[in-house]
């Protein structure tokens, strides 16, 4: 699975500030990251960034990118000021085993990829702005929630089995309202820190995903490096990547993803305030949720 281009994962020359030796093999999962990093233009510069408590951002010449702040992993090594560095160099942090560093790397990738001029030609569909009176409506379920968009197809797949057949759905990451899927499908929620009755420890992915009809994968898996393997395991079904941390690159379609349901920064000032202060309306104001779908899907 992965990029059909044999030479798309070449080293990134001239990057002395941040590098991870031994991560440029074509036959390793690092090719997933190297392709995403290697297609970030060399002339873009990081202007600001913040590793926040819950969310983080990187702002560059091309715009701002967001990522969920993932904690843990290895000890942080790259503590230099990232301002003024090439965006591509900072994106290298996506390969770090320190998940705080990898958070900034994924935010750097989204600073480039999550821009409307790149997404609009791909048929991007955007959620409408959320009015204050609408917050909390429908129990907090966004109007274009990816899970709801796929519900008719999931229900139809279950009906096609006849009898009491139900489609098998796996969600990686315990999203809000995910329990409602259990009303119409056989649901498994894979979670690293199990706190809910529906949660199953994520090592079960090797057993569950090959038989899953529909799999929804959090973008945090790009940060913690599990995404390449998870995408290999889901090749027999339909795969959707969900959440603001999803890198909005059509390259992921080559790895079997049918839809990328992520976000773009609608208001950089509000996003900056929300990240730095841990307050403010993040979804619906600072961020605009959106999606792109693989051509022909």
Automatic annotation (TrEMBL):
Putative heavy-metal chelation domain residues: 166-280
InterPro entries assigned: DUF364 (IPR007161), DUF4213 (IPR025251)
Domain of life: Bacteria
Pfam family, one: DUF4213
Domain annotation DUF4213: ranges: 33-113
Name used for this protein in its record: DUF364 domain-containing protein
Organism from which the protein derives: Gordonibacter pamelaeae
